[in-house]
Amino acid sequence: MSSSILITRPTYDDSTTYLSEWAEELVISFCKEKGVKYFDLYENKANREQFEKILKRHNPKLVALNGHGSENEVCGHNNEPLLDMENYGLATSRIIHALACESSKTLGEKLSQESNTTYLGYDEKFVFVNDQSRSSQPKRDPILKSFLEPANTVLTTIIKGNSAEEAYQRSQEKYDYWIKYYLTYYRQESSIIISWLLWDKQFQRLKGNKEARL
Amino acid sequence: MRVATKENIQDDVWKMVKYRYQAMPPNLKISIGGKKSMNKEEILEHIMERDEIGRMIVEAQMNFLRNLSNLTSNASKM
After folding, report:
1. C-alpha A178: how far from its chain's center?
2. N or C: which end of chain A has fewer CB within 10 A?
């Protein structure tokens, strides 16, 4: 197992584009800063063939999935399943982080029962709010940041050398930070933003090996 | 937390959530799962249809209100 990272970043609709942009901003830039080796499956390279090839050939310890998902799968470009109940064996003995809907419920549960495997994801739909007036520059959207920074804190904490459990705790604390921010600087849209931050926080899960590290 | 069903959300609750989202600034969009990002009008349609997305929106808002007291007390410790 190599201490490298595989990141998938499909970009075929608004939601995947926003996840992809913020993964670049927060995770890829952090890998570069720390000199951590990463494989970036961007746009149409986020397909099942490439995904499986990199897992087999380079054996990355950490897998960071960004995309649409369901209880049984996480998808790549154009909704092609990258990881599901058929090829989940390729993900064993790794740390999997899925910024996707519902995948920790069944897929994550299944993987977490495998030896030395960790799954961090969401048991319900992952929701975020964004400012449409900043849609051409999503990295400059502070509302979007308040949703994607807590989620990606899992990855940056693991890249720093911490355990999966510490990563989960720091991510939960980051959700708390933004909830407190919107309560303190209360404005018209705060109750809507906070309701969804609370939703994501409450459905974020850590399953399997909590002591796993990169 | 998933306690709300089509049967047990009262009309007053649907109305209250609708009013809250009517006050949402028009520049905001919400992305719920695999659905495309929804603007204010699309969100209000789901609430008025009382469909699955509408019920999720109500659950999230009711959960926020239930937790408001704890959240406020924690925020004061900031």
Report:
1. 18
2. N
pTM above 0.90, yes or no: yes
* Domain assignment present for A214: no
Query: Which residues in chain A are contacts of B33 at CB distance < 8 A?
Result: 68, 101-102, 125-127
ipTM of this complex: 0.92
Q: Is A59 helix (H, G, I), strand (E, B) or coil?
A: coil
User: Smallest Cα–Cα separation from B59: which of A69, A199, A123?
Assistant: A199
Residues of B in contact with A131 (CB under 8 A): 27-29
Counted domains in chain A: 1
Q: Taking CB atoms and an 8 Å limit, are A14 and B36 in contact across chains?
A: yes
Residue B51 lies in a domain: yes
Q: Can you spell out the DSSP letters for A117-151?
A: -EEEEESS--EEEEEGGGTTSGGG-HHHHHHHHHH
Q: Could you give the angle at the alpha carbon of A179 between the alpha carbons of B48 and A72, nearest 5°?
A: 65
